[in-house]
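WARN no homologs supplied; continuing
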Amino acid sequence: MKRNVSDYIVALFVITCSIVLLAALTFALSGYRLKKPTRTLQINYEDVTGVKVNSEVRYAGAPAGRVIAMRHLTAQEREASANKKDAVTVTIGLNEGIPPLPVDVTATLSSDTMLSPKFVALSAGTPGGQTLPNNAEIEGHPSYGLEQITAAAGPLFDNANKLIDNLNLTVTGLKKDLDQFMPKLGPLADSLKTDVDNLQNVLKNVESMAKDADKVFGSADLFVKSTEPESGYHIRQGACRNARSKTESHHF
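OK structure emitted
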């Protein structure tokens, strides 16, 4: 079977287009830029997990550049650093059109979701003040992802487990004390019941005595009232006799 030259040309054209598309796709995914950035910024981090060369840089949430280099700090650089925990320097390249960065700009590592790639997030800062020079060096803030939160919560979980263990010991001791006290509670309750019964009997006796006293005072009152007229009569008779005796003595 004889092939035409046009068949070879078409096959060669398809292969060439495939290679070009593959290169373009690789170029786009890698984030490589042919033109080198004219403005850079050095950021020191304690940890840069999730960030790599060509990771995205965002300024106030909008795309602003790429990470162009990463290197570890030497022991001397870490010793001279204000933050002794800094271990990596990230160099970012800023796109043209990004305004000068204020001196109070903050650089953090963030991500849209827990599963999405991380990027360097630059805050907008305060306008109208001093700005950072080109290739300035600033302190980055660590990211607070799920891994960092879990690591930070580790000591808290340990303390919570110790607290639960202490609480279990306390509850066990309290249960033992209650088991020893409950048998003694029965006789004490019986004794209190007997004392209450005796007190009720005393109160009943006092109440009965009070009623008897009321009866006695009532009888005495009736007796006084009944004898009062007769007593008055005898008193008046005695007074008359005394007056008559005095009159007769004057006549003599």
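The CA atoms of residues 241 and 247 lie 10 Å apart.
OK
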